[in-house]
Design brief:
- By secondary structure, the protein is α/β, with parallel strands linked by helices.
- 35% of the residues lie in helices and 12% in strands.
- The strands form 3 sheets. It has a 7-stranded mixed beta sheet, sandwiched between helices. The protein has a two-stranded antiparallel sheet with strand order 6-7. It has a two-stranded antiparallel sheet with strand order 10-11.
- It is globular.
- The chain starts with 8 loop residues before the first helix and ends with a helix.
- The structure holds pyridoxal-5'-phosphate.
């Protein structure tokens, strides 16, 4: 039986093994493991790639979000608006600081926060909005930024799944292509190993154009100290290590080619699924790359770090279909040796730890529906054509 994992990191590793080993040997020879020149070098490269000015390497994507909230001094009595359809960290960091996450439902076609529903949830306590660019496609940043500007709120982009994803702004910015993370006051990336740009352990980065905040973030990640042993703020140990920076620096130049392969795989799924007739019958809904036409080559690009002429309207961190028979399909594909995943089975407003926030069934109906119907299929760059055909044929067999 053919095996198709959800993600195959060993296949990627084989293609860059020698460069990686050489880079790791460099770190071992230097014996400089925490922060230092390799991290500083990566910070510059990621900031340029994202179209931002400053990069601050941190210990994870979760800590990237946390440290931005800390830099804004968000805490007890404050509210932060975000999506209930994301990885837990997006909301967990708000609660950890004693602030209250306020969940605003998503759009059904993009799975991203619905800008139409944000304003009604803003109160005098609201301090920030954390939109998530879920699965690798940007949230509707023009509208989110406009609301934030009118209400004087800080926007922290959770771009953990969306490094390199592009958004063509039409309204509140000049009509330009912007990269995920460069539009809000802060952008947060995760280098968790399964991310499109993944390290060999945990890692993350904040990007920002604000020099004062960049400096504050650097201080916060070393327990709030500057100079050493003199603490201006209470920070934490949020440092990125040199091994991660070395690995990520090797991988970054390949990222655009990997993204292009993910997009090819996604386009092929779109065609194949359409031809099965299951889409027309309403049994499968493929993802909707809504910025596809907007992000065109004719638009000027805001960031000089953009390395390839290809457009990154959606970087397909995940290729997520919706189907009313999700659990049955997942089980069937699993029996066929095909890895899939449900992102996410329980929306955040229903998590046990947020029980006290008092959300009832139907509070965020689109997220609740997505939790019942969404299924991620393998879309990683090294996925072979015969594997993809096997996935689609198995889906047809199931139905
Ligand atoms: C949307 C989102 N936000 C935040 C995170 C947290 O990143 P990390 O796992 O690096 O802490 C993740 C990663 O899993 C994520 O997918």
């Amino acid at each position: 039986m053919m095996k198709v994992p959800l993600l195959d990191l060993t296949a990627q590793y084989q293609t860059i093994k020698e460069e990686i080993i050489e880079a790791l040997e460099g770190v071992l020879e230097e014996q400089h493991f925490i922060l230092g020149p390799k991290v500083a070098d990566l910070e510059e490269k990621i900031a340029a790639y994202a179209g931002s000015t400053y990069g601050i390497g941190v210990s994870s994507g979760s800590d990237a979000l946390l440290v931005c909230l800390m830099a804004e001094e968000i805490g007890p009595g404050d509210e932060v608006i975000t999506t209930p359809y994301s990885f837990f960290a997006t909301a967990g960091v708000i609660s950890r600081l004693g602030a209250k996450p306020v969940f605003v439902d998503i759009e059904s076609d993009t799975y991203n926060i619905d800008p139409d529903l944000i304003e009604e949830r803003i109160t005098p306590k609201t301090r920030a909005i954390i939109p998530v660019h879920l699965y690798g496609q940007c949230a509707d940043m023009d509208r989110i930024l406009e609301i934030a500007r009118q209400k004087d709120l800080t926007v922290i982009e959770d771009a953990a799944q969306a490094i390199g994803a592009e958004y063509a702004s039409k309204i509140s910015m000049p009509s330009k292509i912007h990269r995920a993370g460069s539009m809000g006051k802060y952008g947060c990336f995760s280098f968790f190993p399964t991310k499109n740009l993944g390290g060999f352990g945990d890692g993350g980065m904040v990007v920002t154009d604000d020099p004062e905040r960049a400096e504050k973030l650097k201080i916060l990640r070393v327990h709030g100290s500057k100079p050493k042993y003199y603490h201006t703020f209470v920070g934490g140990n949020f440092r990125l290590d040199a091994i991660q920076a070395a690995v990520l620096s090797v991988k970054l130049p390949y990222l655009d080619a990997w993204t292009a392969k993910r997009q090819d795989n996604a386009a092929r799924y779109d065609r194949m699924l359409q031809s099965t007739g299951l889409v027309d019958k309403g049994l499968i809904r493929p993802p909707k790359p809504i910025w596809k036409d907007a992000v065109s080559e004719e638009n000027p690009v805001s960031n000089p770090g953009r390395q390839s002429p290809a457009t990154h309207y959606h970087i397909y961190h995940q290729y997520v279909i919706a189907t009313p028979r999700r659990d049955e399909l997942k089980a069937y594909l699993s029996d066929k040796g095909i890895g899939t995943e449900v992102y996410y089975p329980v929306p955040l407003h229903f998590q046990e730890c947020f029980k006290d926030l008092g959300y009832k069934q139907g509070a965020c109906p689109v997220s609740e529906e997505a939790a019942r119907t969404s299924l991620a299929l393998p879309v990683y760059p090294e996925l072979a054509l015969d594997q993809q055909e096997y996935v689609v044929n198995s889906i047809v067999e199931c139905f």
